[in-house]
Each structure stands twice: as C-alpha cells, then as structure tokens.
Amino acid sequence: MLHNPKNKPVVFMLSAAFGCLAAAILAEVFLFMLPKGEPVTQTQSICLTIDNSGSMMGSKLRDMKSAAKDFIGKRSSDYLALAVFSSDARLLVPFTDNAGKLKKAIDDIGIEGDTNFQRALEVSADALKEPSGKNSALLIFTDGDNTKGSATRALEVAQQLREQGVRIFAVAADDADEKYLADLTGDRSRVISAKVGQFGDAFDKAEKMIATTIGSERGSNTVALIEVSGWTVFIAIGIALALVAIQNYYLKKKLLPRNQLIWVAGGATLAGVAAGFVAQTAMSALAAIDLGALGRILSWAVLGGLLAFGMVFVIPNLDKKKALSFGALGGFLGCIGFLILTANMGNIGGRLIGAFILGACIGLLVAIVETFFRKVWLMVVYDPRNFTQVNLGVQAVTVGSGKNDTVPISGVGEKAASFLVVGDTVRYTDAHGTQSLEPGNRVVVGKVELVVCSKDVPFSPSKFYPMQMSRARELRNKQRNKQ
Known about the structure:
Blueprint: H1 8-33, E1 45-51, H2 59-74, E2 79-85, E3 89-96, H3 99-107, H4 117-127, E4 136-142, H5 151-163, E5 167-173, H6 178-185, E6 191-194, H7 199-212, H8 217-250, H9 258-287, H10 292-310, H11 320-341, H12 347-372, E7 376-383, E8 386-391, E9 397-400, E10 407-408, E11 417-422, E12 425-430, E13 433-437, E14 442-445, E15 448-454, H13 461-464, H14 466-482
Parallel strand pairs: 1-2, 1-4, 4-5, 5-6, 9-10
Antiparallel strand pairs: 2-3, 7-8, 7-15, 9-11, 11-12, 12-13, 14-15
Helix pairs in contact: 1-8, 1-12, 2-3, 2-7, 4-5, 8-9, 9-10, 10-11, 10-12, 11-12
C-alpha cells in the first residue's frame, strides 16, 4: 500500500521520476518558446576547404561534390572561396559571389595524394586574409587522419584564425579523426559526423550553423547557458516538489503548503542554475578533448547532490553527508543510464527519458539513506493498520497540532511532546517532564500511539497489537469466504 513505510523507497523513486518527467515536459515547452537563432542576411565570407586525397575515391567523391554544390547554392548571398588539400593544398577559386564558377571548380576536383592539414590550414588562412571582419568562416570537409605535414602546426594556424574571429567548422566523413577536428574548430559541437550518402545532410547542418553563429560568441554561449540552466531548473523543481510532497504525505501533512512551496522552489532553482552552469562550463571545456559527456555527468551529479542535501530540511534527521553523496551518486547513475539508453534517440525523447531516470535514481537513493542508515526511529500509529515513521536523532522531533510540528496530531497543543536522541538515549519530553525511552517503549499523545523502534526492535503490528490484528484478519477471511 502507498502509505506503508516499507514501500517508501519505491514510492520515493516513482514519485521523483514522474515529477521529474512532468517538469521535463514543461522544460521542453520552455525551450520551444525561447527565441531561436535565425539565419542572417548579412554577407559572410566562407572558405570551403575540401579533402581530395586518395581515400575520397568513388562514391565519396561524387556525394561530396553534390553536397558541396548544394551548399554553394544556399549561400548565394555570400562570398565563397574554394580550396582543396591532399599531399599539398591549393586555392582553386578566391573569394567570389559567382556560384557557377565555384560549382564548375568542384566538378573538376580530382583525387590525389595524402592528407596534409598543415597546408590545408595555411592555404585557407591566406585566402581568409582577403575579407575582414567577424563574418568570416572556414568549413573543412575531410574523411581521414593527418598523414603528411605537421598536425601541430595546423592547430596553431587554426588557433590564430579563431583569435581573428574566424569561425571554423568541419564535416567529418567516415574515418576522420573527430577529436583532432574538435581541436581545430575549438568546439566539439562544430564537428559534424557523416557517412557516404549523408554528406548532403551534413552540409545542410553546417550551412545552418554558419548562418546562426554569426556575431558574438559570447552571445551564443549566453543563449546556450540559458537553455541548459533553464531545462535543469525545471527538472530540479520537479524532483524537489515531488519528494517534498510525498514526504509530507507520509507525515500526514498538507502536501505542499504555500510557505514550503516557495522556499522549496527557490532552493531547487538555485540548485538547477548551479548544475546548469557546471554543465555548460564543463561541456565546453571538455568538448575539445572529446569528453563533453563527462561535463553532463558532472552536472547531474552536482544536481543530485544538491537536491538530496536540500531534503535534510524536510526529512527529520536525514544524514547530511550521506544525503549529499548518495544524491550525487543518484545523479551520476541517472546520467549514465540516460547516455546508454538514449544514444540513438532524438534530443527531446532522450531528455525526457533521461529526466525520468534521473528522478528515479535520486528519489530511490534519498529514501535508502533515510531508511537503511538510521539507528532509531519513531513509529506513529494512528490505528493498528495506519501508521508512519520518523527518524530520531539530534534534531528534535515534535508532535502536536502546530503547523511546524514534525508529526501533526489534532486535539493536542502545539509541541505537545518531543523526542531527542542524546548519546544512546531517547529523551521524551511532554507536559509531565522528561523521561528516557528505549526501543519498544510506547507513549500516547492524544489518540495517537508512538513507538520507539530500532533495527533490533522493529515495529510489527501483529506483535504490538495482537488482538486487533487477529480480529482484522478474521474479518478479512470472512469477506473472502463470502466472495
């Protein structure tokens, strides 16, 4: 049953999972409503540098020529230059707006030699000296590794171009070294993978990226940060509200009182912003060495740890260090599951499944910390078949009719009684004074019975209430016989 404390880990897991999923759906709406970068009408200067080494023979060459000519047709308002590279590199067409001349030069490209990125970058850099300003871009198409010339020198030239404001993109076909290309472009997201037959799609993506990245790099990074942090804030709030609501349900309280709703949402927002900042910063920093996924894992671990740590303000006597570490573990496991299960899915489907997994892992591990690492706890018995539990510790657990009491009991005053662990002793205080309790001891406040429990003396309804439970079983058996 839902209210049975034994089922709490599973209930926490599912509540956080569905809460996170619902929030992720809202986050997708948020992303959809964000202003999108639109292709600009400003004239750009784009150098198209194509690998024509021996490995490009056959269908790859034909597919590349078709895709490159389509690319030129879509950038008819820009100035384009065309270069090729193999063992050496040469500029076939300097910057021009004559699409026919460019397409004719592409048709005449043949196959020869090795792959020399050094000369490819040097020739491209010379060509890009002609135009000036921030609207310059270099698009490299290649299908292999550097086999001639200095790969390090090519990286140096690429770095100089980027410092001058030239945006570098790459289409990586078949066996191309995407890690090296990420170093050339300075951004793993600007390396587009493609197989034979998909070159057209790859050039389409490159064309859109070139169109939408014109202008300030800082501006595009800010938009990316808003997108990542915004999405993370939504799922953080979803997980936090779900966990708080289900905890309040177990404590027989109002699911989300207004004051609690405000500070929970506020705390979750801060956690989401922090995790989003970590994600964007780490993914950008690690993209160049092809470890961008590690940034995502790190950010989800941060999010899980912060959210679980926040539950110490909701779940009485939850161990702070264990909550932080297990929450981070939940975020880590959630992200690993997301990366494994969604490798071949679209972005939206992947994010939704990832959110569900993330919520499930965090919710489960928070409940595990509360349930499996406690030493002594209080079983609150409303009747022999209706009870809940609260961990006892150095944080006082109060019972009464006040809105701030840990355990709500109607018909008695505010803070009618309290339980506090001092050393190995449970101190119970009420209007009559203070006494020490041991596991198995029971006290009554109003119409509610409170039982101190431990691993050695757990709560068992049939043990504490044998007559009531026997009558309940007898009644249940009679009902079954009638059916």
